[in-house]
Amino acid sequence: AVLAGQLAAAVDASDPGRKGRLLAMAGTTAEALPLLVEAGSSGDPKAAEAALEIGPEDPTEAGRLHLALAAHHRSRGETQVAIDHARRSLPLLEGIATIDALGFLSQLHDDLQQPQASSTWANLAAGAALNAGDKAKAGSILTLAGRAMSRLGLAEEAANASDDGLALVEAYGNPTQKARARSNRAWVYLDHGDASEAALGFDSISDLAEYLGGQFDQASRYASQSRALFHACQSETAIGYYEEAIRLAGDAPAPNFLAHLGFAEGATLHAQGESAVDAAEKAVAITESAMQPWRNVAYFTLARAERAAGLHAEAAEHLEQAREL
């Protein structure tokens, strides 16, 4: 404890997470807690966990920490853990923060291919935002609800919700809300097979890219754009976005999976079977370790790639595996 206290004294205040953890180890939790809350709320998962272990007196601080941990675990592909943290945040938060948590739960269930649950959380969030008079947030969440409706096969309802939400966001939203709403609308286009409109939608985010967040969000944007461009038969441009997505993704499972999936689909469309199989196998490997709810999509994509490569026995085997999943 003495050594930890000495080390904490030597750590610069610009690293509140490390300083806070050392102060906690030294037993000076009153000094440690505000530093840990600051760092944890800004995305330092170790600091957030340490702060929650001490226990903030203000419940809203604890709620924000749980929400920050939910975002961290989502970036790691640990969606169920993220859902647990997001749900724990709900009774602790107030006002707009509660709406953010509801909306994030919608995103998380979308990650798990659970569109009914995603739609339910999105509708709760949109209703709360409208009751609060926050038109921009309501619009942003309506575009998220549109994505869920699209996955449920409600094409017309999805388009209407997405368009209505996007109109609200374009009129009242901040740059981050506009970027996310445009992305959601583009996803609805892609779900409906309109790859050209989807590519244009993702491209419209370019001037707002700096507002999207860190490398995880940027990698996801490039991966989404790449996938849309492959389907729009713009392979050369798509490959550039794919490479940038992989570079930015690092070891984050979700954007890597989406990038490899899009590449595999594009290579299959253009009868480049060997390249398609290679990318699809990478997507499968990610789902086996981190994104298991997407194994059916990965194996189906692998089966299509193998068929394009003339590997008919392997394709039949993996198609059956996709059906079972």
Description of the molecule:
By secondary structure, the protein is mostly helical. Helices cover 79% and strands 0% of the residues. The protein has 18 helices and no strands. It has helices at 2-10, 16-25, 29-41, 45-54, 59-75, 79-89, 96-111, 115-131, 135-151, 155-172, 175-191, 195-203, 215-231, 235-249, 253-269, 273-289, 295-308, 312-324. Helix 7 runs parallel beside helix 9, helix 10 packs antiparallel against helix 11 (175-191) and helix 13 (215-231) packs antiparallel against helix 14. The longest helix has 18 residues, at 155-172.
Write the layout of secondary structure elements.
Layout: H1 2-10, H2 16-25, H3 29-41, H4 45-54, H5 59-75, H6 79-89, H7 96-111, H8 115-131, H9 135-151, H10 155-172, H11 175-191, H12 195-203, H13 215-231, H14 235-249, H15 253-269, H16 273-289, H17 295-308, H18 312-324
- Total beta strands: 0
Strand content: under 5%
Largest sheet, strands/sense/barrel: none
Structural class designation = mainly alpha
Mean pLDDT: 89
Spell the H/E element sequence: HHHHHHHHHHHHHHHHHH
